From TrEMBL:
It comes from the Bacteria. Its cofactor is FAD. Residues 15-127 form the Acyl-CoA dehydrogenase/oxidase N-terminal domain. InterPro entries: Acyl-CoA_Oxase/DH_mid-dom, Acyl-CoA_Oxase/DH_mid-dom_sf, AcylCo_DH-like_C, AcylCo_DH/oxidase_C, AcylCoA_DH/ox_N, AcylCoA_DH/ox_N_sf, AcylCoA_DH/oxidase_NM_dom_sf, Glutaryl-CoA_DH_mitochondrial. Signal peptide: none annotated. GO terms for biological process: fatty acid beta-oxidation using acyl-CoA dehydrogenase; fatty-acyl-CoA biosynthetic process. Pfam families: Acyl-CoA_dh_1, Acyl-CoA_dh_M, Acyl-CoA_dh_N. This is Glutaryl-CoA dehydrogenase. Belongs to the acyl-CoA dehydrogenase family. It comes from Paractinoplanes rishiriensis.
Amino acid sequence: MVAPLDLLDLDTLLTDEERDIRALCRRVADDRVRPHVAEWYEDGRVPVRELALEFGKLGLLGMHLSGYGCAGASAVAYGLACMELEAADSGVRSLVSVQGSLAMYAIWRYGSEEQKQRWLPGMAAGELIGCFGLTEPDHGSDPANMSTRARRDGDDWVLSGGKMWITNAPVADVAVIWARAEDGVLGFAVPTDSAGFAAREIKRKMSLRASSTGEISLDDVRLPDAARLPGAHGLKAPLSCLTEARFGIVWGALGAARDCLATALDYAATREQFGRPIAGFQLTQAKFADMALELQKGFLLALHLGRRRDETGALRPEQVSIGKLNNVREAIAIARQCRTILGGNGISGEYPIMRHAANLESVLTYEGTSEIHQLVIGQKLTGLSAFA
């Protein structure tokens, strides 16, 4: 048997350092996450702070950022880390993505030097947890119409409103909150022990259960002007953070798909029906061939985006939208197909496939639904906006 990504010898496209980072992340996922994640998922809990400290020691938090205790790794190395973490569980990868690509990136890109020194070293070490408050109960895909308000009161700012579906919020030490002020959208680094700030854990999730998700309430939270991110002006700032985080999803979804495919291949090699392993039947092999094809195409797309990011320093939003739209859509299709190969066992928690499939339902819609990414790509192709 050949591993799915070995068909095209894709490892030859990676550097020795990139392969070493991938191996490190695979080991930590195998040792620290896989033995426990089925239980975390079933119980709807995850030891965020313990994992953050371990990931911090390995330099995985904000690993693609430079300075302030961050590793300064390449975009491809960060992508490979996301792939290995999501091969264990999407919720665990979300912890790392939200910490590094949303909360830390927002402060690193738009914060003052004082804010960077206050928050980033502890966040890189996993000693401090961050979250990113943009999505609202009534404004998911349309952040331009956010209801959260920032009102100037003397030298202070007063924040009022609420945010919904915020990863890490119940355990966060700092929340990057986006609010509308008189002169446009502003960002704030809000200590979560501020008076009027509250985060409630969202229960009864059927997806991303090994992830801490919360609803944030801002009841006249008073902040000094020093809490405002001075470089963030307008909606472009939070949207750039989303572009940053979506890059990790492009890679992460491949990890979930690869794990499903590897599980199905192992199962089909030993599961016998009609006197022989089901891996020997033509219809099963056709499924495997199609899934392996899409997995490798997705990897090549992710690698191309990563190399472009490392060469140019940034990716255009529509480029990341192409990656997220394709790779998450194909990953969920692979998970569903692998479930059929396992038959009834495919829904058992003893195997990871149904958990991956359920998680990918969230990955499909968060940080931009498929429809939003289609419109981003369509606008670039036609020159016409279909958002309004």
